[in-house]
């Protein structure tokens, strides 16, 4: 699976360089949507947006299965479990020090797709609000 993942990543990079493959959004798109708090927009509506997309229709059936296994592993280990741990850490601090104020900063990857840090905190009963860029806290 590691060799497959590396090969697919290299193929994607070669396709990008050759101009035969384009990323569906630009860095400017990511910044704009992040700043606006619009993280449920179409560019973020994929659980696997944080990891390379190895699944494509041109793969033979046995390679497509491998790609799906890798995708599932990445989603579970690198996204869901990580966000769960981070959300629990935030919750534990808030519970332990209820009279203190905190500022938590996370990268955009912690707010994309399903089972985000925000989802974890909301499941725990916390109300989470977006503060737009430039707005005083």
UniProtKB/TrEMBL annotation:
<dbReference type="GO" id="GO:0046872">
    <property type="term" value="F:metal ion binding"/>
</dbReference>
<comment type="function">
    <text>Metalloprotease that acts as a negative regulator of the Wnt signaling pathway by mediating the cleavage of the N-terminal residues of a subset of Wnt proteins. Following cleavage, Wnt proteins become oxidized and form large disulfide-bond oligomers, leading to their inactivation.</text>
</comment>
<keyword id="KW-0879">Wnt signaling pathway</keyword>
<dbReference type="GO" id="GO:0006508">
    <property type="term" value="P:proteolysis"/>
</dbReference>
<dbReference type="GO" id="GO:0004222">
    <property type="term" value="F:metalloendopeptidase activity"/>
</dbReference>
<keyword id="KW-0472">Membrane</keyword>
<keyword id="KW-0479">Metal-binding</keyword>
<keyword id="KW-0732">Signal</keyword>
<dbReference type="Pfam" id="PF01963">
    <property type="entry name" value="TraB_PrgY_gumN"/>
</dbReference>
<keyword id="KW-0378">Hydrolase</keyword>
<keyword id="KW-0482">Metalloprotease</keyword>
<keyword id="KW-0325">Glycoprotein</keyword>
<dbReference type="InterPro" id="IPR040230">
    <property type="entry name" value="TIKI1/2-like"/>
</dbReference>
<keyword id="KW-0645">Protease</keyword>
<keyword id="KW-0812">Transmembrane</keyword>
<dbReference type="GO" id="GO:0005886">
    <property type="term" value="C:plasma membrane"/>
</dbReference>
<dbReference type="GO" id="GO:0030178">
    <property type="term" value="P:negative regulation of Wnt signaling pathway"/>
</dbReference>
<dbReference type="GO" id="GO:0016055">
    <property type="term" value="P:Wnt signaling pathway"/>
</dbReference>
<protein>
    <recommendedName>
        <fullName>Metalloprotease TIKI</fullName>
        <ecNumber>3.4.-.-</ecNumber>
    </recommendedName>
</protein>
<dbReference type="InterPro" id="IPR002816">
    <property type="entry name" value="TraB/PrgY/GumN_fam"/>
</dbReference>
<keyword id="KW-1133">Transmembrane helix</keyword>
<comment type="similarity">
    <text>Belongs to the TIKI family.</text>
</comment>
<keyword id="KW-1003">Cell membrane</keyword>
